Automatic annotation (TrEMBL):
<feature type="repeat" description="PPR">
    <location>
        <begin position="295"/>
        <end position="329"/>
    </location>
</feature>
<feature type="repeat" description="PPR">
    <location>
        <begin position="225"/>
        <end position="259"/>
    </location>
</feature>
<feature type="repeat" description="PPR">
    <location>
        <begin position="190"/>
        <end position="224"/>
    </location>
</feature>
<feature type="repeat" description="PPR">
    <location>
        <begin position="120"/>
        <end position="154"/>
    </location>
</feature>
<comment type="similarity">
    <text>Belongs to the PPR family. P subfamily.</text>
</comment>
<dbReference type="InterPro" id="IPR002885">
    <property type="entry name" value="PPR_rpt"/>
</dbReference>
<feature type="repeat" description="PPR">
    <location>
        <begin position="155"/>
        <end position="189"/>
    </location>
</feature>
<feature type="repeat" description="PPR">
    <location>
        <begin position="85"/>
        <end position="119"/>
    </location>
</feature>
<dbReference type="Pfam" id="PF01535">
    <property type="entry name" value="PPR"/>
</dbReference>
<feature type="repeat" description="PPR">
    <location>
        <begin position="260"/>
        <end position="294"/>
    </location>
</feature>
<dbReference type="Pfam" id="PF13041">
    <property type="entry name" value="PPR_2"/>
</dbReference>
<keyword id="KW-0677">Repeat</keyword>
<protein>
    <submittedName>
        <fullName>Putative tetratricopeptide-like helical domain-containing protein</fullName>
    </submittedName>
</protein>
<dbReference type="GO" id="GO:0010019">
    <property type="term" value="P:chloroplast-nucleus signaling pathway"/>
</dbReference>
<dbReference type="GO" id="GO:0031930">
    <property type="term" value="P:mitochondria-nucleus signaling pathway"/>
</dbReference>
<dbReference type="GO" id="GO:0009507">
    <property type="term" value="C:chloroplast"/>
</dbReference>
<feature type="repeat" description="PPR">
    <location>
        <begin position="50"/>
        <end position="84"/>
    </location>
</feature>
Amino acid sequence: MDLFSEMITRGIAPNVVTYNCLIQGVCNLGQWKQATRLLNEMVSKGIFPDVRTFNILVDALCKEGMVVEAKTVVQMMIQRHIEPTVVTYNSLMDGYCLRGAMDEAGQVFDLMISKASMVDVRSCNILINGYCKAKTVDKAHEIFKEMRRMELVPDTITYNTLIDGLFKMGRIQEAEKLFSEMLGCGQLPNLRTYTVILDGLCNNQQLSMAIELLKEMEANKVELNVVVYTLVIEGLCKAGKIESARDFFCGLSSKGVRPDVRTYTIMIQGLCHHGLIIEAEKLLREMGGEGCSPDGWTYNTIIRGLLNNCETSWAMKLIQEMLERGLSADASTMELIVDLLSKDIVDPALLQLLKDSR
């Protein structure tokens, strides 16, 4: 805004491009009053909003969940004889999807289809993602088939989204079939594709397949990151395969992968569930030495592990340590302490310690 003021001072007249940049900036900051003021100001100066101006407003409003207001802006465009573009409708459709209003999102899509050449791959991806999030994967698959009829080529995002949706519904074979189809169409999978598949396999108790895929990825020199390995470690921990999870965790350094806070916390959680609390605290101490500071989630995880293993005094020491680090107990920890207090399992001083820290 300072630069804008300087422009005016120097007698440089702003144009629609200038205002579009300003409106984009204030919208990104969520400053709607400023955006409205700038819009009114440009009109008062005889600078009329163009399609880009309206698209900025529609997109920003939708991202903030203000879809009703966004629809009003679209209607305003039409009244001003500014034809909404595919970008406009994509933003509006995405806004409805983010709110889970899939009927309205579908209506926008149908409107786009009725306007020749209005739908693009992104339009389909938005609706497919919305349907998958709403757990209506069959409707998502219908859009996928509709793409072929419209001669639109599904991209990696399309496949990733639909594969993820199928896995989340437990439809493993269909997800695997779609992945094979993706490869057959010459659409190259990216790291996100593999992450989706590994996550899907682990969450559907297909650990042997997940590990086999991981080994295949390593053999094919796919550049893997800590997220991929953490997914497998988490899957092994949830399946009670703590030894295998530990082996994977200990082998990360040899692969040139550094565990992050999430990796450590998941491993600590797995150890606690198996009563291996000494090893869990050892890992907590190791984190700091590796330059990976434990966060609130890490502390709450091990504290709950200690409490569940009747190690109240030990838990109190870690709670004190957590509070000294400026971290606090989360809802799950508080709930567990209240539950244990009702059973006279823990010292009431524990709850008081947490209350005093707030």
